[in-house]
Write a structure and sequence with these properties.
The structure holds 2 protein chains of 2 kinds.
Chain A (H helix, E strand, L loop, with lengths): L4 H24 L22 E11 L4 E3 L11 H6 L1 H6 L5 H10 L6 E14 L2 E15 L3
Antiparallel strand pairs in A: 1-2, 1-3, 3-4
Chain B lengths: L1 H5 L4 E2 H21 L4 H6 L8 H5 L7 H19 L4 H19 L10 H9 L18 E2 H28 L11 H8 L3 H6 L3 H17 L8 H22 L4 H4 L11 H31 L1
Antiparallel strand pairs in B: 1-2
Helix pairs in contact in B: 2-5, 2-6, 5-6, 6-7, 7-8, 8-11
Classes of the chains: A alpha+beta, B mainly alpha.
């Protein structure tokens, strides 16, 4: 089955415009332009003496234990990437951490509740491209959970 | 004209039928395994940061009502589309609905890059018409330029995912080739620690070799669009191996892109191959029966 000139012309035009959008996205746009944004996963050049940051949330529970909050959908309902993308906002307004506690409590009603949350940044130092020593930790934000 | 025709090769409609079944079922898997937090976002829209498309189209903020409706519509339309009955109506529902589903899933400050080929595939599949419905469509050998265009679009998007990754690596370094010699894989492993990766941390040179192989492979990937037969298969296997390595080292699978590699496979040959095998098989038994009779006659002689 062959296409008519209009059907063929339209299709080729759509394909060419699509390729144009993809190239434009890769050359100048950001992730905001999804699905035509740049394919920037793991695209950065990390220097050999880089400090590698890893953000996590530590929780004190009503059972008196200190635990790392599982940052995924099944855990507290929020992914680590989301927390990392919004670290600046959370530092400015630690009340954003409330929803992490709420998410955990809703998904795990039978487990100890979080009473205090700390947003912590672990930093690993690279020396000549190799990991040097254990990471150092810094508390970025603290939030007393509202019951 | 040759350039124009490159976009519309005549390909058997059977391949479209197979892709519909696999991709619409994959969407259901995707909604539960990969982009699976869309309904959670409906419950907690506080972290919602609409992406460009959502702002342009004035899409409503996710809510329990609209994400639940989206979920039900998608499941029903995917199940219908996968049967190849009413594939175009179902397909025109799935394409915008799943695009919106993924948009919501990625509107939290983090965008994944593995959905380009799948989303575009869903938009091009319903453009293909066909006379046969349901089971009969899988073996349809009618070659169609409309089918070829849809297949070509999916192929281009699969390849673009790799090629544009290499472009992004050059761009992030200010258009310089520093990525393959950098400590990016070390960085990635430190942030996603697990046994295979941690063992590799002791051998940075191995990670550098992998980075070079990766970026050269990505940069050369468009060649696959022009390769044929066995050579194209080698190209596809290279990238499937690439994904296997990524999964082992970084726990990043890219399955929504991997499944779209099927657009390169001659799926339309499955039904004829299966029929030929069956008729060969029955042919063989006839042949054996004949030999048996001859043997009996000889024994009787």
């Amino acid at each position: 089955m062959r296409l008519g000139p209009v059907g063929k012309g339209l299709r080729v035009l759509v394909a060419v415009v699509g390729i144009g959008l993809l190239i434009n996205g890769s050359v100048r746009a950001s992730d905001d332009a999804w699905p035509f944004g740049p394919m920037s996963q793991y695209a950065m050049s990390v220097p050999d003496d880089a400090k590698i940051d890893y953000t996590r949330i530590s929780a004190v529970t009503d059972a008196g234990t200190t635990v790392d909050v599982p940052l995924n959908i099944e855990g507290a309902g929020v992914a680590r990437a989301e927390i990392e993308a919004r670290t600046g906002e959370i530092v400015k307004d630690p009340s954003l951490l409330q929803q992490v506690a709420d998410g955990w409590a809703r998904k795990h009603p039978d487990k100890p509740k979080y009473v205090k949350l700390e947003l912590i940044r672990d930093t690993t130092q690279l020396v000549k491209g190799r990991v040097e020593g254990p990471p150092t930790s810094q508390v970025l934000a603290t939030w007393e959970v509202r019951p | 004209m040759r350039l124009v025709n490159w976009f519309t090769p005549a390909i058997a409609l059977g391949r479209i039928a197979w892709l519909r079944t696999v991709l619409y079922l994959f969407v259901i898997l995707d909604m539960h395994a990969f982009v699976r937090d869309t309904r959670d976002k409906g419950e907690h829209p506080d972290l919602y940061q609409p992406l460009l498309l959502e702002r342009l189209l004035h899409l409503p903020t996710p809510s329990v009502a609209n994400t639940t409706a989206l979920y039900i519509v998608l499941i029903v339309a995917c199940l219908i589309g996968a049967t190849n009955y009413f594939p175009r109506i179902a397909g025109w529902i799935v394409a915008p609905a799943f695009t919106w589903w993924v948009l919501i899933g990625m509107s939290d400050g983090k965008v994944d890059h593995d959905h380009l080929a799948l989303v575009i595939a869903l938009w091009v599949l319903p453009t293909v018409g066909g006379a046969r419905r349901g089971r009969a469509s899988y073996g349809d050998q009618t070659r169609s330029e409309a089918a070829g265009w849809a297949i070509r679009c999916i192929q281009i998007c699969v390849i673009a995912t790799y090629f544009l990754s290499s472009v992004a690596k050059l761009r992030s370094a200010g258009w310089a080739l520093t990525w393959p010699g950098s400590a990016v894989l070390t960085w990635a492993i430190v942030r996603r620690p697990h046994p295979v990766g941690e063992w590799l941390l002791h051998y940075p040179w191995v990670l550098h070799v992998m980075q070079w192989v990766g970026i050269i492979g990505e940069f050369c990937s468009p060649v696959i669009l022009w390769l044929k037969g066995r050579w194209q298969l080698f190209g596809a296997l290279f990238f499937l191996g690439f994904h296997a390595a990524n999964t082992a080292i970084l726990l990043i699978h890219f399955l929504p892109t991997v499944v779209c590699w099927l657009a390169f496979a001659p799926l339309e040959r499955i039904v004829p191959w299966f029929q030929a095998r069956r008729s060969d098989h029955s042919g063989e038994t006839e042949h054996e029966a004949e030999e048996g009779r001859e043997a009996q006659q000889q024994a009787g002689a």
